[in-house]
Amino acid sequence: MNYYRFQQKPSFQPYGTKTQQRMLLVALVVSIAAALVFGYLYISTSVYQNKANSQFESRINSNLVDAIGHVSRLTGSVQSSSAIKLSQVRQHIFAMEQINDISIAIKGEGGRIIPQEAITALYSVLERYEAAVQTATGNTLELRTLLLTHLMSLQEMLTKD
Q: Does domain 52-160 have CATH number 1.20.120?
């Protein structure tokens, strides 16, 4: 005699007890909520970084335009107001450097807006110009033109990016 009976197996076997199923559901909901929160935080952080970067670039450009304006008003010869105008140009270059340093501090080297070579070149020409003004020697037109060229090149480089 064959006592074999066919028993149909259920198509879905529940996993664990009711408590385990509820714990699994709670863990799944918490995981999804955590993923949504982290996604929101990531997006808001990148929006903040983009706003900060555009603010840095805007302030650097504003100081650059002011420095170009001051250099444009310098004459080719030494005058009594030359030292004052050069100090104003130095202030704008220093402000650009400080904003650039803040951007680098926040984002690392990838946050550099102005190349270090450009800042070094500007300070080098500015120091030569100041030395010529202090000694009141000769024509400073060449140094003025060189300083203006460096500033204009920097402005062109920044507007290209």
A: yes
How far apart CA 20 and CA 4 sit, in angstroms, is 35
Span 36-41, average pLDDT: 94
CA 160/CA 111 separation, integer angstroms: 16
pTM score: 0.73
Give the residue from 36, 32, 134 showing the smallest Cα distance to 82: 134
Between 22 and 100, name the one with better pLDDT: 100
Interval 52-86: pLDDT, tens: 889 999 999 999 999 999 998 887 767 777 888 89
Domain definitions of the chain by residue range: 52-160
CA distance 81 to 62: 23
Angle between helices 82-107 and 116-135 (to 10 degrees): 160
In total, the chain counts a number of residues equal to: 161
CA distance 121 to 124: 5
> Residue 57 and residue 103: Cα distance in Å, rounded?
9
> How far is residue 36's CA from residue 33's CA, in Å, rounded to a whole number?
5
